[in-house]
């Protein structure tokens, strides 16, 4: 719908203070675990379309399924991260590419992350999960879940992306990734001792390591010691156009790998952490999961790795994951930028303004998800789209920019849960069941739990 010039008016709301706008209000609410409320208060006050100013730019907050659809599909909006994110991820990261350039890089990543390719790696993921549980969980009376899940997903993803085996390089890169996203939503002022400055430094070091891995992989491919299916970097280096020329430059490969690592690292680890948190207090769901996984294990030999077909049988576990993602979406929301004047619901969104979509606005809407605060896996029983309007469950986004790592996330979550629920039982150490966002959600104290290893004599 093209706006008639001068017909539409700006959405209600205020742009707040120069530069800072409402950034500190939102960030404060995120840290206090009241961000959903903060957004809802705005919706109650101004309606589903309102203006504000976030992270240095005038912004329109859009909420509801129709608004999500508009954000995900409108040609008038381009993906663009706040300046703070761009500075950490690099100007050419996939989250900031648009048009043909985005299509090319996304196509290349999708080539590696498609189910046909990922099915080859289930065994490698299985090995990483078992080793991790043996080394970091088994034999301990208590563990802190969040840092362990972060390390696990980092190890899985770096093994698949770079074939980066255990050792000093992997440890150093993991340490940088631990802090890469600290302060990623920030007023982008690079001052000493800030989380933002730490993130910038960690990102620069990580890029240098990845650039080194790209050089090594290139040499290995030339010597015939690696093939297209060895890992993501080998796959990207092997993509050629009709004339046989390489499709992606080294820099594009570094940025693409960095983007995939960032996209996959914090998100899946958060999902698994919050599943552990939920299962501690929901014995019925845990029992149903155990039954599903026992059934699968019954048909396998001792120590035999999971395969692709086993994952297809983990339907209930995936529903538990989806319901966890609905209640605690790792990605709170994200930004777009209007590349031309556009209009939504009668309101003008001027060229250059940010647009902000927020997952909780639909995930917690009682008109879409009945009793939204209740954990109920049956919501996802018959394909969620049957009961909810399109673009209501948006934990993975939607449209042409929908999460390209969704299948990867599914595999690593299912494999991890398989071994976790069959081997361990746990209790939460903190009675207070809260979490903060910065901007990714993190449970109180990283979720310490008391652990019982059922396999130990
Ligand atoms: C539970 C786990 C995950 C969640 C909740 C999640 C969530 C999301 C969301 C919401 C978006 C879209 C953002 C937007 O449209 O504004 C996205 C995009 C993306 N995700 Fe994921 N993600 C997860 C796992 C992964 C994994 C494992 C990978 C990589 C292996 C990955 C890589 C990416 C990439 C590269 C994009 C950008 C796609 C594009 O712009 O075309 N994600 N993710």
Automatic annotation (TrEMBL):
Keyword Lyase in annotation: no
UniProt keyword terms in alphabetical order: Heme, Iron, Metal-binding, Monooxygenase, Oxidoreductase, Signal
SUPFAM superfamilies according to UniProt: Cytochrome P450
Residue numbers binding heme: 403
A GO MF label: iron ion binding
InterPro entries documented for this protein: Cyt_P450, Cyt_P450_CS, Cyt_P450_E_grp-I, Cyt_P450_sf
GO process annotations (BP): sterol metabolic process
Needed cofactors: heme
Family (UniProt): Belongs to the cytochrome P450 family.
Entry-linked PANTHER family: CYTOCHROME P450 26 (PTHR24286), OS07G0518100 PROTEIN (PTHR24286:SF335)
Protein name: Cytochrome P450 716B1-like
Annotated organism of origin: Panicum miliaceum
């Amino acid at each position: 719908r093209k706006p008639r010039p001068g017909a539409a008016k700006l959405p209600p709301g205020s742009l707040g203070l120069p530069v800072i706008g409402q950034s500190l209000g939102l960030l404060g609410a995120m840290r206090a675990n009241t961000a959903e409320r903060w957004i809802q208060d705005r919706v109650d006050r101004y309606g589903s379309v309102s203006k504000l100013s976030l992270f240095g730019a005038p912004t329109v907050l859009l909420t509801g399924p129709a608004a999500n659809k508009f954000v995900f599909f409108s040609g008038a909006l381009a993906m663009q991260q706040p300046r703070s994110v761009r500075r950490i991820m690099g100007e050419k990261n996939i989250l900031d590419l648009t048009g043909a350039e985005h299509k090319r890089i996304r196509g290349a990543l999708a080539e590696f992350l498609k189910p046909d390719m990922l099915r080859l790696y289930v065994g490698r993921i299985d090995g990483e999960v078992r080793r991790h549980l043996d080394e970091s969980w088994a034999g301990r009376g208590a563990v802190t879940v969040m840092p362990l899940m972060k390390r696990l997903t980092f190890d899985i993803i770096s093994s698949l992306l770079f074939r980066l085996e255990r050792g000093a390089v992997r440890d150093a890169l993991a340490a940088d990734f631990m802090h890469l996203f600290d302060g990623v939503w920030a007023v982008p002022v690079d001052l000493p001792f800030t989380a933002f400055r730490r993130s910038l430094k960690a990102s620069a070091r990580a890029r240098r390591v990845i650039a080194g891995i790209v050089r090594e992989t290139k040499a290995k491919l030339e010597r015939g010691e690696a093939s297209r299916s060895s890992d993501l970097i080998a796959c990207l280096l092997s993509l050629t156009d009709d004339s046989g020329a390489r499709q992606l430059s080294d820099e594009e490969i570094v940025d693409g790998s960095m983007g995939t690592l960032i996209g996959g690292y914090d998100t899946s680890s958060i999902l698994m952490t919050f599943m552990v948190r939920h299962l501690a207090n929901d014995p019925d769901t845990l029992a149903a999961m155990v039954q599903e996984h026992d059934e699968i294990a019954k048909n396998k030999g001792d120590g035999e790795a999971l395969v692709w077909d086993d994952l297809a049988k983990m339907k209930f576990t995936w529903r538990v994951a989806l319901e966890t993602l609905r209640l605690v979406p790792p990605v709170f929301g994200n930004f777009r930028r209007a590349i031309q004047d556009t209009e939504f619901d009668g309101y003008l969104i001027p060229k250059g303004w940010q647009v902000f979509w927020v997952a909780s606005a639909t995930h917690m809407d009682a008109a879409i998800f009945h009793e939204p605060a209740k954990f109920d896996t049956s919501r996802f029983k018959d394909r969620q789209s049957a009961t909810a309007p399109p673009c209501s469950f948006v934990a993975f986004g939607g449209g042409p920019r929908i999460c390209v790592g969704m299948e990867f996330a599914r595999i690593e979550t299912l494999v991890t849960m398989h071994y976790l629920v069959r081997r361990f039982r746990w209790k939460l150490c903190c009675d207070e069941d809260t979490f903060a966002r910065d901007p990714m959600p993190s449970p109180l104290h990283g979720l310490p739990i008391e652990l019982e290893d059922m396999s130990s004599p």
